[in-house]
Design a protein that fits this description.
The chain has about 700 residues and is α/β, with parallel strands linked by helices. It is built from 21 helices and 14 strands. The strands form four sheets. Strands 5-6-4-3-7-10-9-13 form an eight-stranded mixed sheet, with helices on both faces. Strands 1-2 form a two-stranded antiparallel ribbon. A two-stranded antiparallel ribbon has the order 8-14. The model has no long low-confidence stretch (mean pLDDT about 95). It binds uridine-5'-diphosphate-glucose and manganese (II) ion. The site of manganese (II) ion has 3 residues, from loops. One of its GO terms (molecular function) is cellulose synthase (UDP-forming) activity.
Length: about 700
């Protein structure tokens, strides 16, 4: 399964120590289970069972994670072969809710893609608006106009960051007279858009033909399909008399009664519209907050698709999702270094990285069956000859975005982006790999894209809860990576995918280790080996070994610390609640929904975030288990300190004390938010009280069954 070809790939040196460590660590795991099987302790049945379940889950996840570590490989970029003509490129940008995704931001993202250093007659930017918002459309109309000065300005000055919002906000800009003039134009545009957004509708003075569909019966949940060409290459000329690229606004038809399949459905609609209008062989998918940070990206990746010496079955090129606006200590571990940087390198050594949903260049053919089993369209290479603004063509484009179009077809099952999981990105990439497509991870020093992450804890865990529901939808389906996937992509890749799919199960060990050692220590029940027992060192080795390896891969101690804390926080919130939501969906209670991540900035909140404070603020039930853990750990810690002072049981309890101290250190921001803070981000008193009550209850329950 290993990837060959020295000129394209470079094996990373860490794979050797990784393999050695994996051997040692797996011996330690075996020893642990040997002890579980043979040791006679005075733990009760209930606690022993949960402990074994916790340790089995940890061992299973550890086994999965080894697949990422066994053969990490970096890709070597190749210069674009000069004698080749660049193919056409269709860029897909999705937006879904103008109240959570500010129209100005969507427009700025579109501008950053329109401004690519790419032949304008070969570049088309498609916006899919699942919110069917005239405000978003208005912002895009404004962007199309502003683009006519912005594009030549960027190209003449060789600007790299071509999202106007980010560019004017960055510290390195020198404001000469031209720059100031452009900034004024941008500010005017910004003001117009923000005024309209504030009003909530587009006034008559701005109502051009493109808004004609928005009428009385037009709502975001029920409306006909809209396809509007806002810029047309060859027709629209910029301020330097060069052609503009194409810009197309699409809002697929919606009916209350049909299933829209969320983002996957939106992307499939774009696949068909673009096949009708431009049919570029290469497609870039972007979220509406993912701006381009490097105008040469499309040129740079074409080598993978065009160079004959590279794998002809290349399905997609994945860039790491990198973020701007993350605070220095990365409070919520939002960088997701493991998911977006370390693990993709691990998969790059086999079939290739998973699909992250954004920052991905696709081979259009990958959406139509396996490399050797294409299932339509009849002529995937057809060149679109008519004008994209041609009336007949636009009618076809409208037709392919109606609710009924997909009925009785393979869309979402065998072709296009796949339906059935709320992580359509993960699921689609996985299915493409199973069909035989390969992918490649491209991680240039200068980030190709910059995205944003939520800055309130509730938004963070709500996002991961949705991911968890989607992951379980794959894990517990007939496409389970370990049974189905293994047959097509091999064991290593299957374990990589399994690592994510079963991620929500982290809550089994995390809940155990957050509550049980602490409560049992309070009632003087020892559950780990004594400090003088040689087995104690085994436990310490397993604990420190896993954490240590994680730290080494992370490099920055502070970021690592916050990242491991978020792992625990997720285990006590989104992993648990995601699993519960998945179960209730399966039972038919409550429908599946894609809760769009909030991208609106609150100034006060941003200030607190930049200071590194946790943002609780809202009374979210997901804060309850982690508050309970904070309380129980603190009480146990104080109790433990007393016991140690009296030097009673210190030998028996050392392991439990180590975990409790770790729990308290991790909970410091929770105590602060409960007691010390008075700002809007403090822990709501209601949550604190509920947690106190439930923590006491849990204490009573566990202490009464601890010896059973
Ligand atoms: O019905 C929907 C719902 C969402 N979106 C768009 O999907 C994108 C991602 O949504 P967001 O709320 O930002 O979700 P995140 O969890 O931040 O997104 C991550 O996770 C998603 C899967 O859950 C992937 O689709 C994304 O690419 C990936 O960045 C956004 O551009 C949305 O506008 C739609 O087009 N239609
Ligand atoms: Mn997002």
């Amino acid at each position: 399964m290993e990837r060959r070809g020295a000129e394209w790939f470079e094996a990373l040196p860490r794979r050797i120590p990784n393999r050695v460590f994996a051997l040692v660590y797996s011996a330690a795991i075996l020893a642990l289970f040997y002890r579980h099987a043979t040791a006679t302790t005075h733990r009760g049945f209930f606690i022993s069972t949960w402990m074994v379940a916790a340790d089995i889950t940890l061992a299973f996840m550890w086994l999965n994670s080894q697949a990422f570590r066994i053969n990490p490989v970096a890709s070597r970029p190749h210069p674009f072969p000069e004698d080749l003509i660049p193919p056409a490129l269709d860029v897909f940008i999705c937006t879904a809710d103008a109240s959570k995704e500010p129209p100005l931001r969507v427009a700025a993202t579109a501008l950053s893609a329109l401004a690519y250093d790419y032949p304008p007659e070969k570049l088309t930017v498609y916006i899919s608006d699942d919110g069917a918002s005239e405000l978003t459309l208005f912002a895009l109309v404004e962007a199309a106009r502003f683009g006519k000065v912005w594009l030549p300005f960027c190209k003449e000055n060789r600007i790299k960051l071509r999202c106007p919002q980010a560019f004017f906000g960055s510290a390195s800009v020198t404001f000469d007279s031209t720059t100031l003039k452009i900034k004024e134009l941008y500010d005017n545009m910004k003001r117009r858009v923000e005024d309209i957004v504030e009003k909530g509708y587009v006034g008559d003075e701005y109502k051009t033909k493109v808004f004609s569909r928005w009428g009385k019966d037009f709502t975001s949940l029920d409306h006909p399909s809209v396809v509007e060409v806002l810029l047309q290459s060859g027709e629209d000329i910029d301020a330097a008399s060069c052609s503009m690229p194409n810009l197309v606004y699409v809002s697929r038809q919606k009916k209350r009664t049909s299933n829209h399949h969320f983002k996957a459905g939106a992307l499939n609609a774009l696949l068909r519209v673009s096949a009708t209008l431009t049919n570029a062989p290469i497609i870039l998918t972007l979220d509406c907050d993912m701006i381009s940070n490097d105008p040469s990206t499309p040129q740079n990746i074409m080598c993978y698709f065009l160079d004959k010496s590279f794998n002809p079955n290349l399905g997609y090129v994945q860039f790491p999702v990198r973020f701007h606006g993350i605070n220095k200590r990365d409070t919520y571990g939002s960088e997701m270094k493991r998911v977006f940087h370390i693990n993709p390198e691990g998969m790059n050594g086999f079939v290739g990285p998973d699909y992250s949903g954004t920052g991905t260049f696709f081979n259009r053919k990958a959406f139509y069956g396996g490399p050797s089993s294409m299932i339509g369209p009849r002529d995937p290479d057809h060149l679109v000859k008519s004008h994209i603004n041609d009336k007949a063509i636009l009618e076809i484009a409208q037709d392919v975005t109606t609710c009924d179009y997909e009925k009785g077809t393979n869309w979402g099952s065998k072709i296009g982006f796949r339906y059935g999981s709320l992580v359509e990105d993960y699921y689609t990439g996985y299915m493409l790999h199973c069909e035989g497509w390969k992918s490649v991870f491209c991680n240039p020093t200068r980030p190709a894209f910059l995205a944003e992450m939520p800055i309130a804890l509730n938004d963070v865990v709500t996002q991961t809860k949705r991911w968890n529901v989607g992951l379980l939808e794959v894990a517990l389906s007939k496409h389970n990576p370990l049974t189905f996937g293994r047959r097509y992509i091999g064991s290593f890749m299957a374990h990589c995918y399994s690592y994510y799919a079963f991620g929500p199960f982290w809550s089994i060990p995390i809940m155990f280790y957050a509550f049980i050692p602490q409560i049992t220590m309070l009632i003087n029940v020892s559950i780990f080996p004594k400090a003088s027992d040689p087995w104690f060192f085994l436990n310490m080795f397993l604990f420190l070994g896993a954490y240590g390896q994680d730290l080494i891969e992370f490099v920055s101690v502070r970021k690592w610390w916050n990242d491991q804390r978020m792992w625990l926080v997720r285990g006590l919130s989104s992993d648990l609640f995601g699993t519960l939501e998945y179960i209730s969906n399966q039972l038919g209670i409550g429908g599946r929904s894609f809760n769009v991540t909030n991208k609106v900035d609150d100034e006060e909140m941003r200030k607190r975030y930049d200071e590194g404070k946790f943002e609780f603020g809202v009374s979210s039930p997901m804060f309850v288990p982690l508050s309970m853990a904070a309380i129980i750990n603190l009480v146990a810690f104080l109790g433990g300190v007393l016991q140690f002072l009296k030097s009673r049981g210190s030998e028996d309890m050392l392991g439990q004390m180590v975990l409790t101290s770790m729990g308290v250190a991790n909970s410091l921001p929770v105590y602060e938010a409960m007691v010390l803070r008075s700002d809007g981000g403090r822990m709501p008193t209601k949550i604190t009280i509920i947690s106190l009550v439930l923590a006491s209850f849990l204490f009573l329950v566990v202490s009464s069954i601890a010896n059973i």
